[in-house]
Design goal:
Layout lengths: L58 H19 L4 H16 L9 H15 L6 H12 L10 H20 L10 H14 L2 H6 L2 H12 L4 H4 L2 H15 L14 H5 L5 H21 L1
């Protein structure tokens, strides 16, 4: 089985009173729209968040997949590093996980606000003008650049207002632990266990990093602890190349429990299954 990495590179009542708000279908055409007050728009506190009720092939899941791909590609064009892009994806998934119904919100506007907010959180600040221009080029590749007119400033206000909405919905908890540092530690440890020539010949590390990046197309980052995701992508990368961890059969505990004691084989299998569903969805959409 070859590596599956086939994917292509997120108050006061006065502020919410009459400012442009995220609205369904508005940013697909880059048009700001006004929605009801935040409380009436269906937002709820994170501790009251509803569980995921969307299947792997539902229209909503497909939409989130496409928008998350937009976040990643826009992040690359904006010069963001991997951690800010991961934070933007996590903010995006967390927002829709913490809302009663995603209908009132335009996912592309939420994605642009997530990029803007992630740049602040990870201290790699972005200008709203750059986000708007990159998004406009991505959504309308054959159109002319936007002019700095009233329409442009309305779009900018929509991003800022959406950022405030996201902060309120998420309870201002927008700093996340990502699997990246865990995966780096696990790879360094695994390299010491294995034969040096085998490790250099088989691109297990590259496959694991690619799998981790692709995992953000789904909601794995908000459904599982980061260390569990890191172990699961490493497990899948090893399995893809048929690599066995040395003395695993004779060890007192599985190698993955050396990295994360509270992780079971059933949990790894579930994360791997969710990751495979992401690639299945990618094949269906492509």
């Amino acid at each position: 089985m070859g590596p599956p990495c086939r994917l292509h590179p997120g108050t006061g009542h006065r502020a919410a009173e009459r400012r442009p708000e995220p609205h369904a279908g508005s940013w697909g055409g880059l048009k700001p729209a006004r929605a009801p007050d935040w409380a009436a728009a269906g937002a709820m506190e994170p501790d009251q968040a509803a569980s995921d009720q969307t299947g792997p092939g539902s229209a909503e899941t497909r939409s989130h997949f496409k928008v998350t791909r937009f976040i990643m590609e826009a992040g690359v064009k904006l010069g963001l590093h991997s951690i800010p892009v991961a934070t933007a994806c996590t903010i995006y998934h967390s927002f829709f996980r913490a809302t009663v119904a995603p209908g009132p919100y335009d996912p592309y506007l939420v994605a642009m606000a997530a990029l803007y907010l992630a740049g602040k959180v990870e201290e790699q600040h972005l200008r709203t003008r750059d986000i708007i221009n990159v998004s406009h080029r991505y959504l309308h590749p054959k159109s002319d650049p936007l002019e700095l007119d009233s329409h442009f400033w309305e779009l900018r206000d929509s991003i800022v207002q959406c950022e405030l909405l996201m902060l309120r919905v998420l309870g201002f908890r927008v700093s996340f632990r990502h699997p990246h540092k865990y995966l780096l530690h696990y790879l360094l440890s695994l390299r010491r266990w294995m034969n040096r020539h085998s490790w250099e010949r088989i691109p297990v590390a590259a496959a694991a990093w690619a799998l981790l990046r692709d995992s953000y197309h789904g909601g794995l980052c908000v459904r599982y602890p980061p260390q569990h995701v890191a172990v699961a992508v490493l497990y899948l990368a090893l399995h893809c190349y048929g690599v066995e961890v040395p003395v695993h059969a004779q060890a007192q505990k599985p190698w993955w429990q050396v990295f994360s004691e509270d992780l079971s084989k059933a949990q790894i299998d579930q994360i791997v299954l969710d990751l495979i569903q992401i690639y299945t969805l990618d094949a269906e959409i492509s």
